[in-house]
């Protein structure tokens, strides 16, 4: 019988709309202004710039402001047109943009950290400014009176921060590879739990408050989807980058996760599929297929078991196998393996073509991405690269 052709969900592909150039150094954070043809950028070259699209089709600065030190990060609230900027000297400076985006007025400055600010997040609902610094602290300030409300010492430098307004949980991803979940009160916080799955820096976090799913991206090239809402403690791996993952955004309308990496890759993941957890690795002193003993210290490898270091384990069944019994490779997209991975010979025979159908599409941004942002109302993506260029992408065109 001929194979039945399943209608595939439509996938989108990024189309380059514009480039914004002219920076002296890299743009650490930039955001698309919703409902306005504009972009706000903060750069290592110390500038804060607001770019508006002119009749010529080019983006030109309507605001150009130079700070005393480099601007490391930014949070923009479109409702209040407030920008909170984290600086290399540990302060957070806030400005308010005029309605026409042609002027910027200083609002408030917080002496938040002893070292450079690594992430800043303004939460309008709480009137809170959350920030993390190179001093390994996480603090939150009241944006109405400027007072520090609380602080928490993190295990390492923080590079990812998300907040759930409804339950007041903060997700803090750090350079040790762990994600710490804190429950914040007005002036104190408590440790809820930590997620350990990455073998290197957490570089990006993305929280979907509807599905209650947290995505973490890492320098170890992987993404982990932590299904917090499912309450079963399930975690799904997504392996689709050849280098550090640098940014993550979830598009709720299309149930797609967009990830960017320093390899220049933009990966669009279809999250509207039932994914499978990767199996636990089985511990054995001998190959579980041919029973040849392993000659290395397997116990020690097991004790330091980490996702991503799975040589000589079948990724599908988790059995410990020797090289001879796992000579073949296969993709297993529903387990997150979009690239070919080691599988044992019996699993190789059992994986169907349908199971091999990719659940992600791969695109080349042609620059090494250090930051990304997705604007869902227009379906635009912004990428900022080591080439000091911002690129704007239309993510709506459909490829069949
Ligand atoms: Zn074997
Ligand atoms: Zn297997």
UniProtKB/TrEMBL annotation:
<keyword id="KW-0479">Metal-binding</keyword>
<keyword id="KW-0863">Zinc-finger</keyword>
<dbReference type="InterPro" id="IPR013083">
    <property type="entry name" value="Znf_RING/FYVE/PHD"/>
</dbReference>
<feature type="domain" description="FYVE-type">
    <location>
        <begin position="281"/>
        <end position="352"/>
    </location>
</feature>
<dbReference type="GO" id="GO:0008270">
    <property type="term" value="F:zinc ion binding"/>
</dbReference>
<dbReference type="GO" id="GO:0005769">
    <property type="term" value="C:early endosome"/>
</dbReference>
<dbReference type="Pfam" id="PF00400">
    <property type="entry name" value="WD40"/>
</dbReference>
<keyword id="KW-0677">Repeat</keyword>
<feature type="repeat" description="WD">
    <location>
        <begin position="195"/>
        <end position="228"/>
    </location>
</feature>
<dbReference type="InterPro" id="IPR042234">
    <property type="entry name" value="WDFY1/WDFY2"/>
</dbReference>
<dbReference type="InterPro" id="IPR020472">
    <property type="entry name" value="WD40_PAC1"/>
</dbReference>
<dbReference type="GO" id="GO:0045600">
    <property type="term" value="P:positive regulation of fat cell differentiation"/>
</dbReference>
<dbReference type="InterPro" id="IPR019775">
    <property type="entry name" value="WD40_repeat_CS"/>
</dbReference>
<feature type="repeat" description="WD">
    <location>
        <begin position="238"/>
        <end position="272"/>
    </location>
</feature>
<keyword id="KW-0967">Endosome</keyword>
<dbReference type="InterPro" id="IPR000306">
    <property type="entry name" value="Znf_FYVE"/>
</dbReference>
<protein>
    <recommendedName>
        <fullName>FYVE-type domain-containing protein</fullName>
    </recommendedName>
</protein>
<keyword id="KW-0853">WD repeat</keyword>
<keyword id="KW-0862">Zinc</keyword>
<feature type="repeat" description="WD">
    <location>
        <begin position="362"/>
        <end position="395"/>
    </location>
</feature>
<feature type="repeat" description="WD">
    <location>
        <begin position="20"/>
        <end position="51"/>
    </location>
</feature>
<dbReference type="InterPro" id="IPR036322">
    <property type="entry name" value="WD40_repeat_dom_sf"/>
</dbReference>
<dbReference type="Pfam" id="PF01363">
    <property type="entry name" value="FYVE"/>
</dbReference>
<dbReference type="InterPro" id="IPR017455">
    <property type="entry name" value="Znf_FYVE-rel"/>
</dbReference>
<dbReference type="InterPro" id="IPR015943">
    <property type="entry name" value="WD40/YVTN_repeat-like_dom_sf"/>
</dbReference>
<dbReference type="InterPro" id="IPR011011">
    <property type="entry name" value="Znf_FYVE_PHD"/>
</dbReference>
<dbReference type="InterPro" id="IPR001680">
    <property type="entry name" value="WD40_rpt"/>
</dbReference>
